[in-house]
Structure formats: structure tokens, C-alpha cells
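As a representative case, the lines below give one protein's residues and C-alpha cells.
***
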Amino acid sequence: MTSLAALGDGPLFGLPLPELWFALLFAMLGTFLFLDGFDFGAGAIFATLDDESERETVLSAIGPFWDGNEVWLVVFGGALFASFPSVYADLFSRHYLLMFGILGALIMRGLAPEMYEQRHDPAWQRWWGRLFVAGSVLAPFLLGAFAGNWLAGSARSFTLVGVVVGTAVTLLTVVSGAAFLRLKTEQRLPDRIVRYGVFAAGGYLLAVVATLAVLAIRLPNGLEMLLTLPVVGLVVASIGLAVGYVLALRRDANLLALGAAAGLTYGLVTVVAVVMYPAIDPATGVTVRDAIVSTLPLNLMSLGAALLLPLVTVYFIVLYSAFSGPIGPEEAY
């Protein structure tokens, strides 16, 4: 009892736990957007393929990973609820239509390939293929819209900033998806996938510029906030990563291209976090330290996270190690 009571006396080891949990939340969100992002991107590219064997190759490439990757979205939602419960309640209730849309798109994306494989009937596969593409495109777009509205403090579900951020996130998933498919399929898909990745990278940078312009107008002191050294540095780094991505993809250095896509994803999430801080809910003006739970549950959660997150990480290391390397011609979804 004494040791438990001591956990309520102050932050664990004197650490700035509110800020660490804020950073951890966005790290989880970035991990989901990258890992499930290349699945979404593969689903978008699926729409451009007419040959049945090529479509089966795309499904085989993402088959072992997509459901596991969605764990990070659940972890993000759970961590937000546990660490900042008032923000979780206010944010999700304001954007419940977006939440239902995101869940519907994820269900569609998950169900469609399963149903696609049940019958080898052209009409059947055509419709389930379309639903797979729709879910793969709608999920990142709506997630981006949610993030944009969160950052701008909007109470409406569909706004200009939501549209531009949603577009940026959707293009970013195509960037990741093109690199992932090139890495996993070893020339078994058309070379035009490289072109899709290059165009998506250029479109992503344009969407980022549009996002920054909208935020400069929409946010109080927006221009001053966006011209700070961290934000400018992240934008410059993103341009460099996009150039590196294009060069790597064209030279068939696909692992490097996928790494650059990861850098772009985490960079975008970091920009959102930097612009938002110290607020965690700009719509209400509540700050990270105002919204964090009390000391005892915060310390207990931090101990739990220190134990559980390494286990989740090990699971993903094992998963990706077990299915590493390119897929074989005989592999199926």
C-alpha cells in the first residue's frame, strides 16, 4: 500500500509525463499511418490493375500485414482515452460522423478482399474489388480530415483544412504503397507503379503547401506559428525526403524508398503535434497538462506502457521477419 500511495506523490522518476504521453500518442498515430498506409496505398494502386494475376499479387503482398497493422489505431484510441479522457470524449463526440465513416471504410477495406477470394466470378470480383479500393482510399482521406479538423479546432466534420489534409494523407499512402509493392513483388507488377509513386510524392508536397497555406489563414497567429524553426525544418526535411524517395524508387532501391516514405509520414504527424502543442484540443483551448489524468493513474499507465509497448514491438518484428522478402509466384491471399 505504501508503494502504491507513493505513486500518487509525483510524476514517475520526475519525468514530464504529460508531454511524453502527448508525444507517444502522435508516435502511435504515425506508426499506424505508415504501416497501414502502405496497405491503403496498395489498395489504391489495385484500382489501376486489370490483370487478375497482378491483382492477386497485390492482395498476397499485403495479406499477412494489414489486420496486424490496424492494432496501432486501436492502441492510439485506447491511449488517448486512458491519458486524456476529456479530449477523447469531446473530440470523438464532435466528429462522430467522421468516426463512423472511418470505421465503415476500414470494415469495407477488410471485408472486401475476403469476399473477393470467395468466388472467381468476374462480376462478383469486380464489385468487391471496387469496394476494396473505396475502403483503401476513404479510410486515409477521412483520417486525414479528422486530423486536420482536430488541429484547426473545427467543430464541423467537413472543412477546407480537413479536405487538404485528407488529400495529403491519401497521396502519402500511395507513396508508401508504391515502394512497398515494388519491394515485395520483385518486378511482378507493371513498371508504371514507379510513376504512380513519383506523381503521388509530387502531389503530396503540393498538398502540404496547400495545408500550410490554409492553416496560416485559419489559425490565430498561424503564419507566425508556421514560420518557427521546428516547422520550417520539418518542411525542408520533407522536401529532401521526397526527392530521395523519387531517386530511390527510380533506381529500384525500394527499401530506401520505403524508409523515405516512413520519414515523410512521421514528419507530417510531427508537424501536426508541434503546431498543436501545448494545446491538445485547440477547439476548447485545453492544454496537455490541463487534460492529463491525475498522478496515480498516470504513473500506473506509464508503467504498463513501459511493459506492454515493447511486447507489441516484438510482435511486429516477428511478424515482419516471418514474412520478409519478396512474395513467391505460388503465394496467394
DSSP finds 15 helices and two strands in the chain. The chain has one domain: 16-312.
